[in-house]
Amino acid sequence: MSKAVRNLFIVMVISLGIASLWNRIPLIKETVHALLNPTAGALLSFNVNLGVIVFSAVISLMITIVQKYTTDQETLREIKKEQKILQAQMKEFKDNPQKLLELQKKQLEFIPRTMEITFRPLMYTSLPIILFFRWFNDYFADNPVKVFGFMHWLLAYIIFSMIFTTIFRKVFKVA
Question: Where are the alpha helices (DSSP H) in the chain?
Answer without folding.
Answer: 3-20, 26-36, 42-46, 48-70, 73-92, 97-108, 110-142, 153-171
